[in-house]
Amino acid sequence: MAKGSIRVQTENIFPIIKKFLYSDHEIFVRELVSNAVDASQKLKTLSSIGEAKGDIGDLRIEVELDPKEKTLSIIDRGVGMTQEEVDKYLNQVAFSGAEEFLKKYKGQNEENIIGKFGLGFYSAFMVSERVEVYTKSFRDEPATYWSCDGSPEFELYSIEKPDRGTKIVLHINEESKEFLDADRVKAILTKFCRFLPVPIYFIDKSAKAEDKDKEEKEEKPINNTTPAWTKKPSDLSKEDYENFYRELYPFGETPLFWIHLNVDYPFNLTGILYFPKIKQSYEIQKDKIQLYSNQVFVTDEVKDIVPEFLMLLHGVIDSPDIPLNVSRSYLQGDPNVKKINAHITKKVADKLEEIFKNERPSFEEKWESLGLFVKYGMMTDDKFLDKANKFLIMEDAAEQEGKKKFYTLDEYKMEAETLQKNKDGKVVILYTTDPIQQDAYIQAAQRKGYKVIKMETLVDAAFINQMETKWENVQFTRVDADITENLIDKNEEQSSVLSKEEEEKLKGLFGIQIPELHVTVEVKGLSTDAPPVVATRPEFMRRMKDMGAMGGGMASWYANMPDEVTLTVNGNHKIYQGLLKEDDTQLQEKQVKNLADLALLSQGLLKGNALTSFINRSVELMQGEKDLVVEAQ
């Protein structure tokens, strides 16, 4: 029997390790199970090169809970350790056996080794009052026992142990009783270990005692040792990808499609990224991509690795080349991270372009969900923007023969080249943010041969503003931003049949004060089939208000300003020929007010008391017309 003190390589950091090594104490399960996986993977490597003789057998790992004894044990059948190795690896903090092994056997078909820093084992002391190790090496040497109570003092001596491998017994302390709860331990195993490459079995000794008289249940590992991302794409079917998605997200809807990442140079990267269905903008959820290192779960905070716009994707990324800090919980700055980020962007862009070129009808069907990813990417990543210009599509506000029609930017420019170029040579892209509410404006534009597209998602306001600065010779104008004749250029003048005096009188009648609105009135000679009054909202101010409503910056100031609206009175509409001759001033004012309210209603600007007044006034006017008819009879 030997006694001694643990040798710390730099300074005595044991109390720090015990209390503060990891921010989440549950991480000890991941670290110890990862070590057990390493021990198993090392044995596979040694067996493959003939250094470990004989049949290596079943390399399963067991996590055994004994609430009665207040212990949690991790048992493996891997390489084990000699007494010399125990002294070397457990009594010298931060001496990583995994790192030494990788250096020694580099290039000799080594299996994926997880441990890098040699501190993971000591995470056991965050939750234990004492830790015991029973281990027997694959080499023909006696088994070893090691024990420590969290102080620098340890016990080390030879024991009898029939089987190769290591058993670590944690005597859980009073503050960490939660880790004696079977459901809690199973949840941690599922979170961190469900895709580790060695079968892991959870054994609850208290449950076994209760079920001893019952029929023995079939043992099942808690993990899938060969998840889809570890296989070649050519070996996977559509059903395999969809089943794996359900494994990751049991309640998720079948994804649109996926991208299988498989890179081994200049960095190692595997994974599967899924495009989820998103029918409404409010369904967007970030932090759904999981980061793994050699199949060990690390984090779902992947913002440094995955481009911001692709944080909306779901799936898995696995890379041993992503540098992690000692607790594997946060990414460190490194050139590889930028390279991986750029590679993922390129892969996604290439996949989208491929689907667009080869399966455009299918691409268009999925656009409701895809559009959010594509537009978000175009706003935040200029390299993605260059590629996405080819496959961004815009939906026509009008269906043709019951089918949706889509344009790429180049296709829209060709369609609009003749009628929708302004005096500055820019193509004016007319758009609607609400096809139902703005239907009258859309129809008026379409009668002139204009093409109106839909821009109705949460990201579209920002997207429009950015694309005007990034696309050459393009200008966006909402279809209700002006009267139809002025949407492209404000230089089309048409004379009114009214005299100057009549125009001024009409303008005066429409000079209505509305507290919530800033109203400007103009009288113009529009076509006779145009409405008697058209309400429009100036593009710039409306955009500022929309952006302000989204919050942030100077734009928030605009959100509190009154809505600006222009009432364009169509002097050529025949309704005014009778209205201007009306002797009953009160009736004349009511008719004018109703015409103005109808126009405001088309913009969704008539609400509350103003809407109630409009309804009551309309009934009153209709009743008056009915009385006139009765009198005439």
Automatic annotation (TrEMBL):
<dbReference type="GO" id="GO:0140662">
    <property type="term" value="F:ATP-dependent protein folding chaperone"/>
</dbReference>
<keyword id="KW-0067">ATP-binding</keyword>
<feature type="binding site">
    <location>
        <position position="81"/>
    </location>
    <ligand>
        <name>ATP</name>
    </ligand>
</feature>
<keyword id="KW-0963">Cytoplasm</keyword>
<dbReference type="InterPro" id="IPR020575">
    <property type="entry name" value="Hsp90_N"/>
</dbReference>
<feature type="binding site">
    <location>
        <position position="35"/>
    </location>
    <ligand>
        <name>ATP</name>
    </ligand>
</feature>
<feature type="binding site">
    <location>
        <position position="31"/>
    </location>
    <ligand>
        <name>ATP</name>
    </ligand>
</feature>
<dbReference type="GO" id="GO:0016887">
    <property type="term" value="F:ATP hydrolysis activity"/>
</dbReference>
<feature type="binding site">
    <location>
        <position position="76"/>
    </location>
    <ligand>
        <name>ATP</name>
    </ligand>
</feature>
<comment type="similarity">
    <text>Belongs to the heat shock protein 90 family.</text>
</comment>
<dbReference type="Pfam" id="PF13589">
    <property type="entry name" value="HATPase_c_3"/>
</dbReference>
<dbReference type="Pfam" id="PF00183">
    <property type="entry name" value="HSP90"/>
</dbReference>
<feature type="binding site">
    <location>
        <begin position="96"/>
        <end position="97"/>
    </location>
    <ligand>
        <name>ATP</name>
    </ligand>
</feature>
<dbReference type="InterPro" id="IPR020568">
    <property type="entry name" value="Ribosomal_Su5_D2-typ_SF"/>
</dbReference>
<dbReference type="InterPro" id="IPR037196">
    <property type="entry name" value="HSP90_C"/>
</dbReference>
<dbReference type="InterPro" id="IPR036890">
    <property type="entry name" value="HATPase_C_sf"/>
</dbReference>
<dbReference type="GO" id="GO:0005524">
    <property type="term" value="F:ATP binding"/>
</dbReference>
<keyword id="KW-0346">Stress response</keyword>
<keyword id="KW-0143">Chaperone</keyword>
<feature type="binding site">
    <location>
        <position position="166"/>
    </location>
    <ligand>
        <name>ATP</name>
    </ligand>
</feature>
<dbReference type="InterPro" id="IPR001404">
    <property type="entry name" value="Hsp90_fam"/>
</dbReference>
<keyword id="KW-0547">Nucleotide-binding</keyword>
<dbReference type="GO" id="GO:0051082">
    <property type="term" value="F:unfolded protein binding"/>
</dbReference>
<feature type="compositionally biased region" description="Basic and acidic residues">
    <location>
        <begin position="212"/>
        <end position="221"/>
    </location>
</feature>
<protein>
    <recommendedName>
        <fullName>Chaperone protein HtpG</fullName>
    </recommendedName>
</protein>
<feature type="binding site">
    <location>
        <position position="328"/>
    </location>
    <ligand>
        <name>ATP</name>
    </ligand>
</feature>
<feature type="region of interest" description="Disordered">
    <location>
        <begin position="212"/>
        <end position="234"/>
    </location>
</feature>
